[in-house]
Amino acid sequence: MTAQLSANPLKWRDGDGVPLVLFNGSCKIRHIEFDRYTGAGDFVVLQDLNGKGEIILTGASDFESVRTGNVGYMTGLKIVTATLTTTGEVTVFFE
């Protein structure tokens, strides 16, 4: 059984620095959202701790929240790259 993280959802805001490990261990991720960005070209790249399962979320021209579908189990999660102008927030929802 997977251990529950301390906060659901887990949030990362620009300024927390990258690369950044959000959590270690195995976890079932429901979906990931990217919002509060200021440029349509802003993006964030996430991977599991083994460097696999790359997830790329790119800002939309209408500045609406961008989200993944159901992600599933991952062994840890890290933000590899984030190109944000001034703000941006990644929210990870898990079970």
How is this structure best summarized?
This protein is mainly beta.
Structural summary, described in words:
The chain is an all-beta fold and 95 residues long. The protein has a single domain, classed as Jelly Rolls (Sandwich). Helices cover 0% and strands 52% of the residues. Strands 1, 2, 3, 4, 5, 6 and 7 form a seven-stranded antiparallel beta sheet that branches. Strand 3 and strand 4 form a beta hairpin. It is globular, with a radius of gyration of 13 Å. The model has no long low-confidence stretch (mean pLDDT 84).
- What's the multimeric state? single chain
The N- to C-terminal Cα distance equals 11 Å
| Overall tally of domains | 1
CATH topology name, in short, is: Jelly Rolls
The radius of gyration over CA amounts to 13 Å
Please give the number of β-strands: 7
| Helicity, as a percent range | under 10%
| Mean pLDDT rating | 84
Please tally the helical runs, counting DSSP H or I stretches of 4 or more residues.
0
Report the order of strands and helices. EEEEEEE
Largest sheet: 7 strands, antiparallel
CATH class category label: Mainly Beta
* Beta fraction: over 45%
Broad shape: globular
**What class would the helix/strand composition place it in?**
mainly beta
What would CATH call the architecture? Sandwich
Q: Provide the low-confidence segments as ranges.
A: none
